[in-house]
Design goal:
Layout (H helix, E strand, L loop, with lengths): L3 H12 L3 E3 L9 E7 L2 E8 L3 E4 L1 H6 L4 E9 L2 E5 L2 E5 L4 E5 L4 E4 L5 E9 H5 L19 H7 L14 H11 L15 H13 L9 H8 L3 H10 L4 H22 L6 H7 L5 H12 L3 H5 L7
Helix pairs in contact: 5-6, 7-8, 9-10
Amino acid sequence: MLGYEEWRAKLRESCGHYYSEPASDHSAVGGFDIRQVQGLDMASIRCSIDRISRTSKGIRRDDAEHFFLLHQIEGETGISHFDHDTLMQPGDFLLLDSTRKADLIFDGKQSGFLSVHMPRNLFLADRRQPPATGQKVTQRHPLHASLKNLLDDTNEDLDLDSFQSEHFFDFVAMVFGPDPKSASIGQFRQPESQMRYVAQIIDQHLRQHDFSVGQLASKVGRSKRQLQRDLAQAGTSFTELLQHRRLRHFVSVGKRYGRSGQRINIAELAQLSGFSDQSHFNRLFREQYNSTPSEVLRSAKPQQ
C-alpha cells in the first residue's frame, strides 16, 4: 500500500501532469504498478482519494500527448470529459484524451482501474475520424469481450507475436467508432490485423455448432466470396481457422482447469469448444497436437 505522496509521484511520472486531491485521511491510498501489454505501458491503479484532474495548466506542461484507455476493475469512478458526465462501473471502458480537460472523481472511495497509454499521434495516424472520447463502452457492446481479452497478458489464446500495438490501435478505434454495427474488417489497415479480427469474431461464436462462413462474412463486413479470398491469401480457410480456434480454446480452458485442480470432462469441454462429434474432435486433435487430449492436458499441473 502506497502513501499518498509516493502514489502521486507515480501518477505524475507515468501519466503526466494530472493533479490529484487526497481524501481527508491520506496516509495510505492504494497501489500503482506499470507493466507492458501489446507493446504499450499499462498502469494498474488503485486509490481512495477525492479526485484526479486534468487542467489547462497540466495540458500546457506536458509535451507527450496520449489517449488513455481506461478499464474499470473495482469500485466506481465518476468521469467528466468531452462534455460527458459518466459513472464508470466494473467492466466499463472509456477513452481519455490528454489534450482535453478531465475530472476523475472518487469521493474517497476505493476504486481500481487499468489505464493503457497510447501515444496520440500514433493512434490517430491515417485515421479518418477521431474516436469517441468521454463515452463509456459497457458489456453490452458487441466487441467488449474481445477488447477485454486483448488486455489480458495471461491469455494463452492471444498470439502476442502477431498482434502488436498498431493492431491494438485499430481495434480500439473500431470499438470507439461512431456505430458498433458498422464495425468491419476494412477498418484494419494491415492483413495481420484483419485476420486477428476475424479470429476474434470466430472466438465469440465458438459454441455455435452451425456457425458458417456466410455468418462470419456478414459479421466482419465482407461478402462470402471476398472473405474466402482473404482467408486463402492468409494461407487458411474458414473450416481450418474455425477448427484451429476451437482446438486452441479447448487446450487453453483445459489447462486452466488443470492448474486450478478442477476435474476435466474431455467430452463436455469439447462440446463447449464447439465440437458436436467426439470422434471428429479426437481425430482433429491428434492431427494438430500429435497426442491425445488427455496427454496434453495432463501437463497442466495444479498450482501449489
